[in-house]
Fold this protein.
Amino acid sequence: MKPFIHSLLICLLLTACKKDDPPPPVIIDFPGGDVIEFDCTANDTLVLADNWQAELLPVDLPVEGVKEMVFPTAEVGYLMGSDLSFWKFSVPDLQFTRLPVEACQSASISAPDAEHVFVFTFNFITNGGLCADELHELWRSNDGGSNWEREAMPDLVFEVYDSWFTDGQHGFVASTHGGVAKELWSTDDGGNTWSSHDSLALHSESDFYEEPFYFINQTTGYLLGDSHLLYKTTDGGRNWETLVSTEDRFQKVMFVDEMTGFAAKRETDPFSFGPPSNKNGIYKTVNGGLSWVRVLSGYPSLFHFADQNTGLAFILDDFCYFGSADEKKYDLQYTTDAGLFWDKKEGFKPGTEGGYQYCFYAPKEGFLIAKGKVYRLSYSG
């Protein structure tokens, strides 16, 4: 999985912004209401909540939407477009450069630093219009995307749906085949060889979750497993300890240190027909994942904690089972006391045009892409 990275719908309605002759940066507060709209100019800073801010960068996306992105540093990011095109973004130059990676079915991208980039692609090989075979490849670059090596993945590694590299040599992928088996694979040599961790039980396809990995450093990481299991490693993934089963199955987990972590539970897609689970929300552990307590109720679309006390989350505030996604509204909730109390700003609308992605390269700094615009996120507290 990518550092601090998540592919999720969030809920801002952003209008087109002028880019000519930008004035000095100003602070704009988000108003409340059914629809969030504001006039903005490049380099304006938007106050999301409390001390969370988003600075609009004077650059447009080269693609209509973004499926996945990772910013390993403040200076460079790697993006996968909704059309499965791949791009490098130089933040100081405000320039997008298309990368020669090819994918037509699905892909996963990981970049532990600015120089090492790994892209796992899944393609169908056709014969006379019929699917004759599947091609699973690893594209990797050791020089920031200037040059690429391309090779087939081992036969037993099928479609990679998530990946995480802790450095240029050590990485993990979660793979699935035919929507049934899910396996964890690891490499210690930059993807030249792969080892299977078949003793770990990952989720079945019917219980698909978004991001199984989370590493707080190169040696200590966590893995979401099947049957409410949470695994932990303290030796870089060579061995995994099975923690006690969590009370609820989580779709996303993150830790700010070895003892304090947060997780999102999202059961029943709010954009489908059917009631949500009354156990949805943000959960917290203070004993390394052995036990969890819910600190915020609702269906979380996005959440992030900068430290043990400071976090924010977008929570779907109502369910219109037969409405479109554009009719859904979210509340932005934020806490500065470890989730004991949450403040709320109401009325953010998600929208669907162009998609939304966010990525944190440091606990209090990251990037947000929304409606074709790029924002630099920061927490000033």
